[in-house]
Amino acid sequence: MKAEAVVFEDRMRAAFREVEVPEPGERDVVIEVAHSWISIGTESSFFRGERISGEVPYRPGDPWPFPHVAGYQKVGTAVRVGGAVTHVRPGDRVFATVSRIGGLFFDFGGHVNPAVTDGSQVWKLPDADVPDVAYSGAVLTQVGYNCGSRPPVERGDIAVVVGDGLVGHWAAQTLHRRGADVRMLGRRPGRLRLAEEGGYAAALNGRLLDPAAELARAGGIAVVVDTVGSLETFRRLQPLLRRDGHLVSAGFLGEDGAIDIQTLRAQEITLHTPSGWTQPRMDATIRGIAEGWLRTLPLVTHRFPARDAVRAWELIAAPGSPCLGVVLDWQT
């Protein structure tokens, strides 16, 4: 079976081309894709050759993971449904994660159309007045939801989200929903302004102020969520964490993730290391988007026809890239 896909052919080289996908089986759903959302952080890491799989960094001597179909999230319409799949019917609007790929380094990928996907990785979209494209990054939204859901929070607790990318915004939205007083520490004024305008976080611009000094005046921190992989930033904030505080580490640290547990013990800091997705978290994330408190569309800064994916990656990889949320549209 033939499909079109966004393929990372080598480091820093993307292509939009035809690929082989397996014939669908009894457990599969075939999806006509409408929109797929680029996960800039994770996909860029693969694009640069920093990883060989999910959380595994590249080391000299490892095989380069190319070519492979990039990504892991999309929305569209179910056009064929295997006999063993009972929660989706042809014609349903659906969200899907990874789909089956043939003949490349990985046997799965995200940006592909049509998409042959195991039914366990397909969710029927709610009947809500929300555009389908709002759900197209739901795995990544779930990462932010997971970060914001892990630590216990009491109303008024100060939570610091390190990073003004997508995961940072969705972690901040989740913590705000739970009653935290959220501060977003980042370096891009436009992204920080989105959080303030959305009403879910106060901005701390790390280029203009000393965040530790600013936060010291605010009182003890209950939660630090690191979405960018910066232990150095956490170490600067750690003295401000109150006893029984929480560190949520979601950024990719490569081989630089060593942390001295004994330094956490003195303050009884709990470390959380969220990764991947589960059905209950995906269910909760999709419900949050439908209810409107997990906001995705205001974070979309760029949309490209899928056939222009190479141009999208040129912009994403450019120094000082303006991209935050990037969506590929497959029906234009």
Automatic annotation (TrEMBL):
Pfam short name (any one): ADH_zinc_N
- Keyword Metal-binding part of the UniProt annotation: yes
Q: Where is the signal peptide?
A: none
Among InterPro entries, the record links this protein to: ADH-like_C, GroES-like_sf, NAD(P)-bd_dom_sf
Keyword Cell inner membrane found:
no
Keywords, A to Z, come to: Metal-binding, Oxidoreductase, Zinc
Annotated ranges, domain Alcohol dehydrogenase-like C-terminal: 167-273
Necessary cofactors? Zn(2+)
Source organism, top-level taxon = Bacteria
Q: What family does this belong to?
A: Belongs to the zinc-containing alcohol dehydrogenase family.
Q: What is this protein called?
A: Zinc-binding dehydrogenase
